[in-house]
Amino acid sequence: MDLILWRHAEASESAAADDLSRPLTTKGQRQAERMAEWLNRRLAHSARVLVSPALRCQQTAKALGRKFKTLDAIAPGASPGAVLEAAHWPEGSGVVLIVGHQPTLGLAASLALAGIAQPWSIRKAAVWWIRHRPRDDEGHVVLQAVQSPDCL
Question: Which residue of 35, 83, 100, 119 sits 20 to 30 Å from the alpha carbon of 68, by its own alpha carbon?
Answer without folding.
Answer: 119
